[in-house]
Structure to design on (91 residues):
């Protein structure tokens, strides 16, 4: 995996967060399904990825402008900045 050099300018938004749940917050409320989960590193929102039918992680980014998500899948620790479209070193 290639990481951005230099990293994006949104690193100041990274926070230690508590996940909002064990699954996609919106899908759990509506009975939807997901493929993979993403954790917002600004607020802890857990949303489904862009391969999922409802793309709640991206929707959360567009609604809140929280730019950085981390994979919320076991064994994965990559981080993505929506604004700069780059992978970042795990924090």
């Amino acid at each position: 995996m290639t990481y951005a050099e230099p990293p994006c300018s949104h690193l100041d938004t990274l926070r230690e967060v508590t996940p909002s749940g064990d699954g996609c917050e919106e899908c759990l409320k509506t009975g939807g399904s997901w493929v993979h989960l993403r954790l917002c590193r600004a607020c802890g929102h857990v949303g489904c990825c862009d391969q999922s039918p409802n793309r709640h992680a991206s929707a959360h980014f567009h609604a809140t402008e929280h730019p950085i998500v981390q994979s919320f899948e076991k064994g994965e620790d990559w981080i993505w900045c929506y604004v700069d479209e780059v992978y970042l070193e795990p924090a």
Summary: The domain at 11-88 is CATH 3.30.40.10 (Herpes Virus-1). The chain is about 15% helix and 20% strand. The helical segments are 25-30, 56-64. The chain has one domain: 11-88.
